[in-house]
Design brief:
219 residues, alpha+beta, eight-stranded mixed beta sheet, four-stranded antiparallel beta sheet, 4 helices, globular
């Protein structure tokens, strides 16, 4: 099926909640149950945008606030959310969600999960979360990994929020490429392989090598 024949992806929104921990910035991650989309994965709070929310960025904000309350028991002010990315999955994804990513400082309150849709939660440094994925301890989706990689560049919440607010929202449309040895890569705008070039040729890089240890590369 050609890309233009695919049904449109489902609108969704997620919130990357951050706080200053004893050793640096930490983010809240939730483990979904084994059923449905992202089954068993560790994710940021979020979910689909309902028709009543609206189809624009404000609608995504409303969805993000609602889903954070339902999944983590935390109440957010919509204007505390800083939009910084939008992700569209590849055509091969079994269920496609076009997702707004917002960054927000963690509000006061205790994280509570229902034990059904969400099985567990953790406050963790971005670097530690990526290490756990590479060690096989947790499973992450590529947008989550790339977001953690970006967060790891910020020393604290203030720096992360300033960085997110400083630039325009970046739109990622993922494409999957396979190397000659069968390794999978997620590639994005600017990569030499994004428009059909070969992965191995010289040129710009914007990709995630999904090997035993994932490696995000951007030049």
């Amino acid at each position: 099926m050609a890309d233009d024949e695919l049904p449109p992806p489902i609108p969704a929104a997620t919130v990357v909640l951050v706080r200053d921990g004893a050793t640096g910035l930490e983010t809240l991650m939730l483990r979904r149950n084994a059923r449905g989309a992202f089954g068993g994965m560790w994710v940021f709070p979020g979910g689909r945008v309902d028709p009543d929310d609206g189809v624009d960025e404000d609608g995504a904000r409303r969805a993000a606030v609602r889903e954070t309350r339902e999944e983590a028991g935390l109440v957010l002010a919509p204007d505390a959310l800083v939009p910084f990315a939008h992700w569209t999955p590849p055509p091969v994804a079994p269920k496609r969600f076009a997702t707004w990513f917002f960054l927000a400082p963690a509000p006061a309150g205790v994280v509570t999960v229902d034990g059904s849709e969400i099985h567990d939660h953790v406050w963790v440094s971005p670097t530690e979360a990526m290490r756990r994925r590479d060690a096989g301890e947790i499973e992450l989706a590529p947008p989550t990994f790339v977001t953690l990689h970006k967060l790891a560049q910020s020393a604290d919440v203030a720096a992360a929020l300033a960085d997110a607010a400083a630039g325009a929202v970046e739109f990622f449309t993922t494409r999957i490429a396979k190397s000659a040895d069968g390794a999978l890569y997620a590639v994005w705008h600017g990569d030499v392989a994004y428009e059909g070039g070969e992965l191995h040729i010289d040129g710009a890089r914007h990709r995630l090598a999904m090997l035993d240890e994932w490696k995000y590369e951007r030049t």
